[in-house]
Amino acid sequence: MRTLHQFNGGIHPPDNKAQSTQRSIARAPLPSKLIIPFRQHAGEAAKPIVRAGDHVLKGQLIGMPVGSISSAVHAPTSGTIAAIAVQPIAHPSGLPDLCATLIPDGKEEWIPHAAVDHRNSDPAELRQHLRMSGVVGLGGAVFPSDIKLRPGNQKIKTLILNGAECEPYITCDDMLMRERAAEIVQGAAMLCFMLEAGEVLIGIEDNKPQAIAAMQRAVADSGLPFEVVAVPTIYPGGSAKQLIRVLTGLEVPSGKLPTDIGVQCFNVATSYSVYRALAHGEPLLSRIITITGNVRQAQNFEVLLGTPVQDLVALGEALPDTDRYIMGGPMMGLPLSSTAIPLAKASNCIIAVSDKLFPPAPPALPCIRCSRCAQACPADLQPMDLFWFAQSREFDKAQQFSLFDCIECGACSYVCPSHIPLVQYYQFAKSEIRAHGHDQQAADHARERHEFREYRFEREKQEKAERLAAREQAAKQAQPAVPSINPADTMQQKIQAAIARAREQAAASKPKNTENFTAQQQAEIAEIEARRAHIHELAKSADEPSKE
Amino acid sequence: MLSALLVMAGIAIVLGAVLGFSAVKFRVEGSPLVDKIDAILPQTQCGQCGYPGCRPYATAIAAGEADINRCPPGGEEGIHKLADLLGVEFKPFGGGTVLKPKSVAFIDENLCIGCTLCFQACPVDAIAGAAKQMHTIITSECTGCELCVAPCPVDCISMKLIGENIANWKWKYPVYTLAQAK
Asked: Which of A46, A291, A362, B54 is most buried, judging by how many CB atoms fall within 10 Å of its CB?
């Protein structure tokens, strides 16, 4: 039995997971329209490589990854691209982004695809394959998985599969582990092979006994030396840094990555999609999404990426008093501005919300510095101080208080007796600091370019001056080289010599075929010569006045 | 009395020598204040302050010749920072300067005649092209200074507003109502 560790803080909200685990995962019917965003991952958005009117096959690449942190986007089914245009997507800004609209033809016609023999492939090739398969972290951060598999300066001792799924209401990973445990374990074996990890731990919260049992069975069947560990249920125990703490006792230092302490963490759903990408050559086209909350039929569906939220809501049969929807969980989820928004790689859950289910938050009161938030904070921060600095825009102080270690889990807002929306302040402060850093970088870059331009002008001026000086020097040197002879004389001599040479040459070379001319030809030649002489005369007389 | 005077004079000579030596030995090339001011300025090199670039403006501020409120691209935040650095009061924008939203230059490539005047004007080499070849703006390098707009003989350069998009969007300051005291 493994000794488990603890992190400070955390909360125990009612988990509300039982509603959506009564039925097995169902495949959602093919929607009439798919809206596929080109930005479904962290980093640079993919570049569209299809045009409106193109016919695409299921699994065909439609968005090419751009830059080092990016991922591919594929057509989730066969059909026709109706448009490439900006459309609303799930983003806190509510701003639209570039999406492809795909009208399915219903044939589900696959593009040719084949499995990759990962054991006999180069790791770099496998990473490239995952990048081109659009595999990203499905836990919520949607960070491209190929980058997490790059060899770092530290050897990976422990690979952790994250099946904790700590946020209330969400059960997509739970159901995936119950029903597709063998595939997840195979995916973990592939990840372990690529990372050359020493051990593999699969962390699952102990409120999912069926998932734990299924995973244990799958591990036993596979004969792999993986360990399934039941971890205590506490929010946010599924956050990577917190899960690493619980399983290994190691703490990821502030501003560092888990790889810096020899640990790497992947979500179970990511492991599943790695398996699909390598063992079947299938890119990431669908994911499991929970529809729950104020619905008649809470359930998990396997949904094609790009399916509008309203299609999933219809499957769950939202109750009439539903007035809004949340994408994600109640703690960290994103309120949706419309149900026409497409589901993407980051969408794990849709909660239908009524005022009865989630009563509106009471108006906020001033902070009384009770420090309940500090007790709840899983990242060992001082949320009340961070709030204070963010509110007064003292961003450098907020940064000194490790604002960027905040995982925005919302535990502080949950316990706040004054109901202050604390996380919003941290998000505001973080984005201001990031924007400022970006501006500063741009300014430094512009300064560098401007200075280089000035330097270039200076250098060009100097080079020109040097050239002139060199020419003058050369002219000066040429003069004293022949001091005794009059330069005009030498010039005349040279000209005379040249003329003599030319005459000799002219005498030596005679025009060809000039013998045997008829009298008429002779006359013509004479006439032409006369004309030529006349033109010479004219040219001379025309030249002379202009010279004066 | 005399010994006291001699001691004082001796101390003065020694200290003077130390000061003189350190002034030569630890001489700082250029003014560190100019560097600090220059670091705050946004480096658009736009000349809206009336000086030919950010560094000349920084030099003028350091010399006390220019006001701190002449840099529109730096925004009010920039004025606050300059005021903090120099220990002076914040001043609102003055001297005919106007705040403008961030934009980048755009060349209408159908109209461009390839005269090279714009890239001679560009302070950050953000325009690519050659004589009698079409020119184009390298958007990622453009600081939006508008210096290329005026020299263009065919008016083919316009400024395009960047606007808010997913890449540059920022979280807004949370606005919520406080509960009324009863």
From this structure: B54
Closest-CA residue of chain A to B141? A446
Residues of chain A with Cβ-Cβ distance to B173 below 8 Å are 428
Angle made by CA atoms A31, A32, A33, in degrees to the nearest 5: 90
Q: What confidence score (pLDDT) does residue A293 get?
A: 93
Q: B152 and B107 in one domain?
A: yes
- Read off the tokens for A522: 């002779």
Task: Give the pLDDT score at A53.
Answer: 93
C-alpha A466/C-alpha A456 separation (Å) is: 15
Q: What is the CATH number of domain A18-31+119-353?
A: 3.40.50.11540
Torsional sign, CA A376, A377, A381, A384: negative
Tokens describing residue A463: 């080079």
Respond yes or no on whether the N-terminal peptide bond of residue A123 is cis (omega within 30° of 0). no
Out of B141, B173, B178, the one facing A363 most closely (by C-beta) is: B178
For B51-77, what is each residue's pLDDT tens digit? 888 888 998 988 888 888 888 888 888
In a domain, B175, yes or no: no
CATH of A361-473, one of 2.60.120, 1.20.1280, 1.10.1060, 3.40.1000: 1.10.1060
For residue A97, which residues of chain B lie inside 8 Å, CB to CB? 165-166
ipTM for the complex? Answer: 0.79
Q: Which of B141, B173, B176 sits opposite A449 (nearest CB)?
A: B141
B77 lies in some domain: yes
Q: pLDDT tens digits, residue range A145-195? A: 999 999 888 889 999 999 999 999 999 999 999 999 999 999 999 999 999
Enclosing domain of residue B57: 32-86
pTM confidence score: 0.81
- Which pLDDT score, from 0 to 100, does residue B178 have? 57
Sequence-ordered strand ranges (E) for chain B: 103-107, 127-128, 136-137, 157-161
